[in-house]
């Protein structure tokens, strides 16, 4: 029987019972059914199951009810339970692929060495288990998600497979038992249709219901599907069968006829299907309009300004395959499931499910086909999506897995028309945003272009489609299909033409544009991604002769489409003025296929070229771009805003140049090589608008340019010609040579890091990564041309990265200024390259005087196809221009510049080096230039040709007109010349040529038909009526002008002697580098060597004696520059006046800053200078500049920075830094730190003794102590106050908070937050401190006691409240505010004066201890007293002492008494002397006694405390003895040397510690010294600061005696022969035995009850190693792999931004709300508790370190660098990173020395949000 339970349960109890029963029922039902189904006649079993499923899987029930899901699990699993079932199925997994699917932000790997497809990726596990040593791999954070390709030999090489997937596990797996998956096969189809029905039901058109909500409800069901896929190959096979079975789909899809719900549900599905085609049903009805018609639609967008005006244009879609445009039809579950996945915009879980199935080969093929079938629908949905970014990522997540596989891609290309679909969809997409082209003549234009301000382009929505297209074109088999299919190619070309001429710029002539359009980036991105990338993809398959046909076809269609384009925009031969578009993809396709054809396929260029007329047209637009670049740089487009500069820069930028400027230049070179050179040259000058300038006349008119634009435009034109005739990128350079040239030019501009160089080198033709057989790799090339400069580290210096710099021989031989100009985005980079070049020449002694000129470089010979290009250098037109310019430069005409001369000389030299073979065939053509300036076209022979007369047209006012016109008495030849003196008009020349060529090339006289609209528009320039014709007398040749210029440049008459040519030949290399003089000499030499006639001519000219060099005229240029100079001067004055007022305050202290090198304080305190003995200490105020004493009324203070520090507390016993844990097994134990040890000790004392006594027996401040540092500058405290006031009003000051008292030192700009008042006083006092003492110790002890008696009688409060004492109290307040309360209140009663007392003297302790740490932990290095003066400890002690007097120590408890007298024992609660900390006692005494303290009294204190310290040492030592040892030592003779061996015996008797150590007299003495050393060091340092004594250095092993001597504990005369005994420093004023007995008895009384604890207190180790940051592993990956997915211990989640404290290793959630408490995020919170507001954190995902200091933070940089010495912030490159030990040391050093604030500059507030 079958039991189903559809009734609603009643009560809670019943409900539970029912559920229990049902669960049991499910299991037994499942078992029962399974056995039924296994029978031979299973029809009843099948029927029963169907009935059960009918009622369980009811789509009318809400999906949130998981009852159905439970049933399915039970039925599938049978009696063994689902978990168990999963395990069993998994054991039959035969998959050989990894296939792990991941989503965004997952960390994966890519190995270019192993990858066949560039999209290949590996999961971390597979990567780490494979062998990729030495491979080109990187780690990356997945953006769109992906899947592991390990095991898939279609995508990657087998050598890269991991161990597991290399083994082909599948072959050994047993086959699946028949009945295991039987139930799955029966149940799952029903389950899947149920999900589908939910999806149908949830969707309505238009989607009004919240799709996310529907998906959320379905979550458990879809998760279940995903779980199934994880069971491995066996289950995937079952699923594949179900998903692809057409019969099942047919049976189940419609549902039962009688069911109303199912019927409606199915109709819902059908109506959704209906709109799935690209063409809507209505549109299909009205196809017919063949002509493009304007749509009525107008786009609405955020910046509607631009769209609103432009109307969308709709095209008819007649060209496309209707089958692609149609609605979808489904035949299996998989198809409908994908359909809904698309409709629901790719829910993540569904995507993961679909991808998880991919390791099943049958599924993979069917799914790929299904995906392709839905491709158009996917893109249609994408365009409508609100979340197109997310959806794009999900689409690519899937498509990359399918299309990266060549077999699969080819398969669907062949069977499913993939290419047709993609191109059609691309067209469809772009057609949605077409507008009429405005290029040329908008009214009559029939061309349409994409509108770059539409969302589709601006948001890059087309990206997934284009990326798929590029991906499949990378497969040769697919690309071939594309190239063979002519109709596809044609369709593609019409797609490309949508981008031709888009984003047109019109030059603003009157007003500045109101709105700077930002569409340009969308346009550049679109051309690069949608046009250029597919082009490069296709080109990689056109590399060999066999593929010639492909290239020919592409070229043919390019030309056809170009012709259509010219016709559509109505272009004849004249450009509409003031327009430019940077987008000419059709030109560029044509250019690049031409280049490939000649370079790789051996095709004849001639066969691929169109007729001359077409070439002339093709040339126009690229040339216009070159001219516009020059216009933009000459500021002619300023009114169009900054964006136009952005376009000019993007056009040449490294990611675009290969696809834009390079093809353009190449195309122009092709045109130049085929067209008439005179025509080409005149076109160039006309385009650059400098034709008018090219006259010999002194005055000219320019209708097109303003005066100040002429020079830069002329320079631009000449530079362009130089580039055109010298660039060889596509004219014969090999790929390696190109890479080398690119690299050299980038390195010459600047030293580069490896990564920036990688970024700056264009991708084509040499991809920077991956293996291109036969070509030189990036790395090899780099090491050939550059030297590596390792990062240099200086303490306090900025972090440097590893840099590459050109090798010397590269500067000498390869620096190519032309390549630099071509590749510079910023103009300053050209200058930078020249500066670096000059510096190199100077340094190497090659050129030492003046500024060198850009070096001339010889070019590689041209490929025979392009030989015609050289004719450009050998045409009369160019020679006339050169002659004219040389002449004008010589005469100092306006608008000439050094740059012009440099380019002219460059052109001459290029001409000399690239001779044209006089081709007989050429002579058939008629004369090239209609003039008689020069006899021929050869430059070499034209050089020495003398021009006698030139006819110019000038205004009547020109100087030429006034000159007396008188033809010279002449020979007949000259007379005839005179008659023919030439007027030369370039424009007229060009127009005539154009006509000629057209007449010649088109015999059909088509030109007669062509409307010559342009010719009526054209007005010849220079026709204003005032012009008159004048004849100039010249009598110069180019050679003579060159020689005159040589004289002019060298400022020497006859600078070239008649015989100089003979001297030249000796060393030709001498002339490689130099200035203009060198260049002219080089040219003359070349001319002389190559032509006898030139040589004779040169010798003749040089032999003549010239008149003195023409004095420099006050030319208009000069005047202009003077004017400019004057204006600038005036502006500068005005500015200075303003500044003077503004900065008078700062100025005063900046000026005094100049001579404060030797402050008076230093001199005053120098005791050797007797003459200043009587004078008061003087201080300079860095604000007002006055100097004077610090007085009670007007105190002076030191600029100080107070900060809380826990550096001391983090010290450990071991000198080895603790290791950062990188596995779960490793841990850091914090208990052994100095801070923790002191806390334990104090707590232990407090459990035994009176609190107030405890608080005087230790020091605190190990954690959270206040450290005081100063820059050494002083200021009046009242000056400081007004300074702070001005800062508060100054909005510019940022980076610190004035309200918190923060400021920067007005003089040195160091960060500070308080002012420490200076003690007023006379230096006589200083002397009195030092008075030598002959008093007996007992007398001194008594004097000290008396002084201490005064304590109570000397309260500060009774003295008049002076300004000074007020300031002193203020700084005390600052000190207290610096640290947190918990670091001050150690007593049992919070806020008691005892706490305050402890805190105050501990401040002194902290600062002394830190100084010791900074000195390396000992005082062996010594130090002059000057060091003490630069420190502020003396002033700090004074302030502390003044404050400490507020407290009185109960004289009854005065430790001095107990230290120096034998007295009856006191209350137990007092801390025994043997437990007290001697350094603390010393500081307490010093600070509580009347100031200033005499040195003799100080020494007395040190001596008495030494007695105690030594006794403590003995006690601690004897505690380590074994009883036997104790016995032996107490009777041995060694200790008898000191008079108190009995004391030792006394001490020994209560100690019971066992120890097996063996002690010698030497080791005992050594450990006693070690025990006392910290005390001696501290005393010595204190003395140094109080009295300015020099610290004498000593070897480390003699430190004890050195310090003892320094403190006067020992006879100053050293006795090196005798071993030093620590006991000889003892000095007792009472019986040592009695006193020590007394101290011991204090402990022995206690020891009875608390032996163990008193032992702990007695045996203390006072030595701490210097502080260290954690020890880090060498390889960053070790840290990253462990921590990037580690869960936080507080919130148990994996943080989004994990961070690590480098001081203690704590792992925190940076910025995470999860761990925020009291409004403070975890990182900041930790910094407060671990470092007293200083924190050093390593950001795991970024590899950088941030510093937190109080309320501020800064980015410190990284201590991990890649193999090239570079940081990789945010792990963008993902290359292996290694610890840079030097950097880490710098970091640690800054931490220990508390200099983060001073060295790091960019601080910002963190608002507790880190
Ligand atoms: Zn894997
Ligand atoms: Zn693997
Ligand atoms: Zn590899
Ligand atoms: Zn002052
Ligand atoms: Zn300063
Ligand atoms: Zn920490
Ligand atoms: Zn946390
Ligand atoms: Zn957290």
TrEMBL record:
Pathway the protein contributes to: Protein modification; protein ubiquitination
MF-aspect GO terms: ubiquitin protein ligase activity; zinc ion binding
Record key words, sorted: Metal-binding, Transferase, Ubl conjugation pathway, Zinc, Zinc-finger
Any matching Pfam family: zf-UBR
Ranges of residues in domain RING-type: 1254-1309
The keyword Zinc-finger appears for this protein: yes
InterPro entries listed in its UniProt record: E3_ligase_UBR-like_C, UBR1-like, UBR1-like_WH, Znf_RING, Znf_UBR
Similarity comment text for this entry: Belongs to the E3 ubiquitin-protein ligase UBR1-like family.
Identification of the protein by name: E3 ubiquitin-protein ligase
Natural source organism: Oncorhynchus kisutch
